[in-house]
Specification:
The complex is a heterodimer of chains A (192) and B (580). Chain A is built from eight helices and six strands. Chain A is α/β, with parallel strands linked by helices and 192 residues long. Chain A has a six-stranded mixed beta sheet with strand order 2-3-1-4-5-6, with helices on both faces. In chain A, helix 2 links the parallel strand 4 and strand 5. In chain A, helix 2 packs parallel to helix 4 and helix 6 crosses helix 8. Chain A is globular and about 45 Å long. With 580 residues, chain B is an alpha/beta fold. Chain B folds into four domains: 215 residues, Thiamin diphosphate (ThDP)-binding fold, Pyr/PP domains (Rossmann fold); 99 residues, 3-Layer(aba) Sandwich (Rossmann fold); 165 residues, Rossmann fold (3-Layer(aba) Sandwich); 53 residues, Alpha-Beta Plaits (2-Layer Sandwich), CATH 3.30.70.20. Chain B has a seven-stranded mixed beta sheet with strand order 3-2-4-5-7-6-12. A five-stranded parallel beta sheet of chain B has the order 14-15-16-18-17, sandwiched between helices. Chain B has a four-stranded mixed beta sheet with strand order 9-11-10-13, with helices on both faces. In chain B, helix 10 packs across helix 13. The longest helix of chain B has 24 residues. The chains are: A alpha/beta (192), B alpha/beta (580). Strand 2 of chain A pairs antiparallel with strand 8 of chain B.
Amino acid sequence: MNTKSIMIVGVGGQGTLLASRLLGNVLVAQGYDVKVSEVHGMSQRGGSVVTYVKYGDEVCSPIVEKGEADIILAFEQLEAARWLPYLKRDGAVVVNTQKMDPMPVVIGSAQYPEGVLEALEKTGVKVNAVDALNFAVQAGSAKAVNVVLMGVMAAHMDLSPEVWKQAIRETVPPKFVEMNLKAFDLGYQSGN
Amino acid sequence: MMEKKLLIGNEAVARGLYEGGCRVISSYPGTPSTEITECAATYDDMYSEWAPNEKVAAEVAIGAAIAGARSFCGMKHVGLNVAADPLFTASYTGVNAGMVLAVADDPGMHSSQNEQDSRHYAKASKVMMLEPADSAECLSFAKMAFELSEQFDTPVILRLTTRIAHSRSLVELGERVDNGVREYKKDPQKYVMMPGMAKVRHVVVEDRIQKQIAWAETAPINKVEYHDTKIGVITSGICYQYAKEALGDKASYLKLGCVYPLPVKLIQDFAAKCDKVYVVEELDPFLEEHCKQIGVTVIGKDAFTLQGEYFQSLVKQVILGEATQSISTDLEIPPRPPVLCAGCPHRGLYYALKKLKVTVSGDIGCYTLGALQPLAMMDTCVCMGASVSGLHGRNKANTANEKNSVAVIGDSTFMHSGVTGLINIAYNQSNSTVIILDNSITGMTGHQENPTTGKTIKGDPTTAVSLEKLAEAVGIRRVRVVDPYNLKETETVIREELAAEEPSVVISRRPCVLLKNVKHNPPFQVNKDKCTGCKMCMKIGCPAISFKDGKSQIDFTQCVGCNVCTQLCHFNAIEGGNQE
């Protein structure tokens, strides 16, 4: 199998690292060779963060490059647009509709662009926009945004949802399993 | 079948230390090296500790190795500058049991102040250096490094880069082999380095290098892979992965697992079989210069950059001339630089400094982010500890500076190398004002304990250094403590200390808001009827506060109710939270 590439992008502190770990473990359990490249340290503090996940028969470089990603999972709208050049022409963007102003916007030296989702769609790639915060709250906790998004992404991959649910049962503390499974399902159902 | 796990390079190094029978570990945290020691501390069969700095850590490891226990110390690239002093002479003394030093370089400066190439240290100190290319090699090379250390009687350096240290790949776990503690025999000729003994040891060192070169010629970690020989690639570490992905079977590879000392004949033979030979290495032309020195024609930095990280498409573009295609939107996308967290105690302190319009001698840590807009309250940042000594220099350059200049340094950085600068201030009398940002943790590297926190690496209670008493003990009579959440108090105290006719220390004390035991208050919200849109609250650069439709608004998912913004609002428009 050719190597597949997924990028998880967002704002430092949003829980992208946890998502990539869960994804990595799911893929290892399926018997793939897997490489995950993470970002630690200064850029984690509210900056733009990116994690690369690659899998296949044999993975060499752990990083994903422009035009290589099969899926971009964006935890924030602006970040989806920032990392779009990394997507394949026939790739898919799963994007949380949440917006977070970067500091240059906060201090008024830059504008948060209007119409990000429309601009993404205009490029002709597949865009799956989801209000993950809303689903997370429905599932029982605003903190489950990342699990909702994992659910949406799972709908774009060739793995059975059960594989993901098993990984959730193994990683999440028992009392949160039910809520996270619900969050995953809500995400999975809204994936297209 | 052995268990397979998806580990980051640093965790794999820790596993290699464990399996290799390491007994004593001493390190100072530094991205991207920190997780090696954090993870090693989870193995109860090894003694692990956070040392106050890298020099201490390296000396602990040397002491343990000479005493007969396999030892380790880990650090980031700039940490090796601090540990260079013991390293150069440990090269002469050699070890008894194996000693491994890991250094993690940061090409692209994800979290560093420079982009130095630590391979030069191996050559300069004449210490063998290995460089793994994935997590499996991180584990196996760490184990092998102990064997080589004992075989050649030398410390061995394990060199990582950010992409190796922080990338996950599959690792097969093995069993721990612990050969116990070797006998220590008194041997001043070997372990006491003064001129008479050191001259003899230098001969041993040069002889050792020759033996290591002979070893490197046939060592299995220096691996040749022949495919198409039109293109030959000499490489090591992560660059091997980039080259392999970019070129596949269109090139042959000489992958060097040992980057110092380098083989001669192996490289000459490989190059002779290939039509055109490239050296693919990040940062400096270290391998390239060796190739040229031994008469091998290669293309290196004439085609590749000296700066930043490499990646597969760069290799593809330079060697095959193939460019990559990409799509993009036509939006103008503002950058998203890192920021001080919502509720960060450093924010209030910087706001007070901004009001006082002082010059700030800065240091290394989360608080370096105070240099960015809108606070923008840092004038210099060089290296760990330089804030304190640099301020003294500034004040000696012109005593008028004493009234309008301060140093800011974190608790962990102060322990690392700020205290020596403070001793200098007291001893050589400058009326300097040093502010210690005590957030009760080593923050930027992801929450490590330090000598001021009262906890060991394992979280066990231990002696805590009192910053107040330490400052007093070195001769500072004016020591004040402030809460940076209290803007008025913080500003007043710093103003008084700047005016004082003697050196002073201000401790800005408030634990990091991300610490698990720090209780958050309910979030604030903006009363739209009272908000006049004056943007006073925006001046502190809190990521939870934004401006929409002429009014401020607070993001409830980020606000921790720190109460700093409420002190800026003249219209009492910020409500909720927990305002005592």
